[in-house]
Amino acid sequence: MAPEPATNMMTLSGQQAEVTINGGINRETSSKFSQTLQISTMASDSQVAPDVETHQGERAQWVLNAPKPPGVWTQFRTTLRDCVGSCSGLMVSFKKHPFEYLVRSLESVFPIIGWSKDYSLAKFKCDLLAGFTLASLCIPQSIGYATLAKLEPQYGLYTSIVPPLIYAFMGTSREIAIGPVAVISLLLSSTVQKLQDPETNPIAYRNMVFTVTFLAGVFQASFGILRLGFVVDFVSHAAILGFMGGAAIIIGLQQLKGLLGIAHFTTKTDVVSVISAVQKSFHSPNPWNPLNFIIGCSFLIFILTARFIGRRHKKLMFLSVMGPLISVILSTAIVYATRADKHGVNIVKHIKGGLNPSSIHQLDLSTTNFSSVAKIAVLVAIVALTEAMAVGRSFATMKGYHIDGNKEMVAMGFMNVAGSMSSCYMATGSFSRTAVNNSAGCQTAVSNVVMAITVLVCLEAFTRLLYYTPSAILGSIILSALPGLIDLNGAYHVWKVDKLDFLATLGAFFGVLFVSVEIGLLVAVLISFAKIMMNSIQPGIERMGRVPSSSSSGSNAEEDAFGDVKQYPMALDTLPMGVLIFRVKSSLLCFANATSVTSRILKWARYNKDEAKAGENGEGKTKLIILDMSNLVNIDTSGIASLKELHKELAAIDIELAIVNPRWQVIDKLRLANYVNKPGERVFLTVGEAMDACIGSRVLLPPV
Question: 543 forms bridges with which residues in the sheet?
């Protein structure tokens, strides 16, 4: 009789497997698993099996005997050391090379020292042209944004002098243009006027704006010094899209006051109040003046046409940039020549000239509304930083260099603190002016210096010429800058990629549009937080299977590839009968999701057990459940208690539970809770090793 072929019979008992080779089949096994798997192997595999088991035992030891993870106090000290910097290294450097240490320290605070070493005359010529071009756009916009912030026009010009000068020395972006912007101006006017009325008490309102600017600068600098840049990231890109879009519409509607020449207008910013105020103006004793509307619309069309021509023909780019300034000059000349101010055309009138006056004595830190002022300052600081960082990073990526986020925050903070002491209100990076600065060929932040000097000269010499500038022109200039704030393509992209992110966009948009600016931003942040919580603790599990290898034999890496059976349907039938593999989808197993996760696993186990009972001879009965915890970053006591309960429930129905690849914090807490003690008992490094240890050797495709 011919000898029987060599076979390898695996009988599972806990974590042990009895292997019978070259002698037929051993049928006398006592195992927790009633199912035995027969797999044909080469005789040489039997010689490798003991080495494999030894190696797996060592790897299980790696999981269980991992070093103690850093505690909360250790992490805090590490963070604090990173915030302060490598003090010990700096002190050693100071002792060995004091001059070099001093230069490096100054360069870290003032980046201009570093890049000025390579500055050339050719770069200065480019920056000079870009600075003049930037000033031609900045002057009319600054006047318009100051009126939007409900301040006198000169404060917008002041804000275009001191903050850009300080940023040029401390900032790391080469292209960003610093000054007042529309969104921050609207945010200040809509929040501060709830504490001080700008019409009944303009001086107190102005002082409160300076105080908010000072505190916002302190917060911004603190974020940078303490490496708290993640605070800015709370306002997501999707939230900013909706916030900017809603703010642009509100800003545009508010310009109807200047375009129509309405004397009494609402102080509210929601769209319903603004439209109601416009409707009431038609029935008021002093209706709107059509001359204001004609002047404003005519020059708005001129600015938009000049911009269109400039973008289509690069040689005429100067028309796009000079359009607002040309509009101011022409409209002022027309009003002066025709004396249109005598016929109902509203004009700017007196603009105070000269250097920025000191405003230190106007800062009121002892106000009874200090807590409210501080809340406004935090909101303004975060929004201003978010806009500036988005602008700076966009152009830095385009030019192929990196900006230091923490240094940017410090620079923004110091420039606003200094600005608040020199009659400036909140300044940040402007996207429209930065685009102009880049198109004009700027090379460094010197373009901001040139712009600031040009605005200063204008304040000294030409403010009297702006007396007859019609207010409608300022509204036209602001309206011409609003299309850049509405990014429909960006909103569509968010909708296409992530519907929950788009919900944050809609929340910010409609919140700003129908309630208020701060409520819109708050709604968007809350939606973003809710999304984070859902993604972190959503009570979901994935059923996994082995992804088939690309070859008949397959490498170890391919054999160990396991994936979600919904994503990889072909992996559904590649596991041996009686084995279920699940992966926890959330990054935290805690009181909020632990019960749901474990109950779903139990539901699957009982369902498979009932299905097996209904079949012939109980085939397919679940005997092993492998829980992949590679996604879990942390676990709390409720999660551990749920795991213990799951283990007991499964053991009661004769099912073994194995845990795979727990992260550092997770395995440490499982050890402290005495859930795992011995290597190979319940914890393994990979899914494949868990199957090998529980089944006896690597299981290939089940027999057909």
Answer: 582
Structure tokens at 690: 């868990």
Bridge partners for 9 per DSSP: 20, 38
Q: Report CA dihedral (135, 140, 142, 143) to the nearest 10 degrees.
A: 140
How far is it, in rounded angstroms, from Cα 10 to Cα 576?
13
- pTM for this prediction: 0.74
Q: Which amino acid would we find at residue 82?
A: D
Whether pLDDT at 25 is above 50: no
Where residue 692 falls (left for φ over 0; alpha for ψ -120 to 50; beta otherwise) is: alpha
- pLDDT band at 169, cuts 50/70/90? very high
Pair of tokens at residue 45: 């595999």
Q: For residue 452, which of 148, 167, 213 has the smallest C-alpha distance? A: 167
State whether residue 588 is helix, strand or coil. strand
Q: 681: how many CB neighbours lie within 10 A of its CB?
A: 16
Distance from C-alpha of 559 to C-alpha of 552, rounded to nearest angstrom = 11
C-alpha 278/C-alpha 260 separation (Å) is 9
Q: Please tell me what DSSP assigns to residue 1.
A: -
Q: What token pair was written down for 624?
A: 């092993």
pLDDT at 349 over 80: yes
* Rounded distance between C-alpha atoms, residue 127 and residue 581, angstroms: 63
Regarding beta strands 8-13 and 16-21, do their DSSP bridges make them parallel or antiparallel, or are they unpaired?
Answer: antiparallel
C-alpha span between 364 and 362 (Å, rounded): 6
Beta bridge partners of 626: 581, 658
- Helix H segments across 547-678? 556-559, 594-614, 637-652, 664-672
Tokens 């996207």 label which residue? 431
To the nearest 10 degrees (0 to 180), the angle between helices 499-514 and 271-282 is 30
Whether 15 shows a pLDDT value over 70: the answer reads no
The CA distance from 247 to 190, in Å, is: 11
Give me Rg for the CA atoms of the chain: 35
Instruction: Please name the amino acid found at residue 504.
Output: A
Type of residue found at 353: G
* Contacts with 126 (C-beta within 8 Å, 6 or more apart), sequence order: 441, 442, 443
- For 669, other C-beta atoms within 10 Å of its C-beta total 18
Specify whether the CB–CB gap between 522 and 530 falls below 8 A.
no
